[in-house]
Automatic annotation (TrEMBL):
<protein>
    <submittedName>
        <fullName>CAL67264 family membrane protein</fullName>
    </submittedName>
</protein>
<feature type="transmembrane region" description="Helical">
    <location>
        <begin position="34"/>
        <end position="53"/>
    </location>
</feature>
<keyword id="KW-1133">Transmembrane helix</keyword>
<keyword id="KW-0812">Transmembrane</keyword>
<keyword id="KW-0472">Membrane</keyword>
<feature type="transmembrane region" description="Helical">
    <location>
        <begin position="7"/>
        <end position="28"/>
    </location>
</feature>
<dbReference type="InterPro" id="IPR047674">
    <property type="entry name" value="CAL67264-like"/>
</dbReference>
């Protein structure tokens, strides 16, 4: 049972959302100084890329 393009994009979206949540959590709870802002910004960037992957499902 192979994976088609839509399922690969779905898994990529899921992984990006999980990684974004982890990075935002690190920024909020572990690194509360200046580097926490960077972690949170990168986590939001992961959400943006996951949104693009999600919108590409069905069109590729």
């Amino acid at each position: 049972m192979g994976m088609n393009k839509n399922s690969i994009l779905g898994w990529a979206t899921f992984i990006m959302i999980v990684m974004g949540l982890i990075l935002i959590g690190l920024g909020l709870f572990k690194y509360r100084d200046i580097s926490g802002i960077g972690f949170a910004a990168v986590g939001i960037g992961f959400f943006a890329i996951a949104w693009v992957f999600s919108s590409l499902k069905g069109r590729v």
